[in-house]
Amino acid sequence: MAKILVKQVRSQINCPLTQKRTLVALGLKRLGQVVEHDSNPAVLGMVNKVKHLVSVEEAK
């Protein structure tokens, strides 16, 4: 299973509650924080929902 690095690059202030909860579900609590996840459909769907708030890279 491939790994991805998800980094929060924009603030969650003034975002809908569903997007805030998605960030928490991804493990992102503050700006600039990076978390590593498996690249599976569930995680990719969450990342797609908040794609304007995060950046994604493949882990090495």
What would you note in describing this structure?
- The structure is a single chain.
- By secondary structure, this protein is an alpha+beta fold.
- Helices cover 32% and strands 27% of the residues.
- The protein has a single domain, classed as Ribosomal Protein L30, Chain: A, CATH 3.30.1390.20.
- Strands 2-1-3 form a three-stranded antiparallel sheet, with no helix packed on it.
- The two termini are 12 Å apart.
- The model has no long low-confidence stretch (mean pLDDT 97).
List keywords for this structure.
60 residues, alpha+beta, 3-stranded antiparallel beta sheet, 32% helix
Strand content: 25-35%
CATH topology grouping: Ribosomal Protein L30, Chain: A
Note poorly predicted spans: none
Main sheet: strands, sense, barrel: 3 strands, antiparallel
Rg for CA atoms: 11 Å
Write the layout of secondary structure elements.
Layout: E1 3-8, H1 17-26, E2 34-38, H2 41-49, E3 54-58
Antiparallel strand pairs: 1-2, 1-3
Helix pairs in contact: 1-2
Q: In a nutshell, what does this entry contain?
A:
The protein is of the alpha+beta class and 60 residues long.
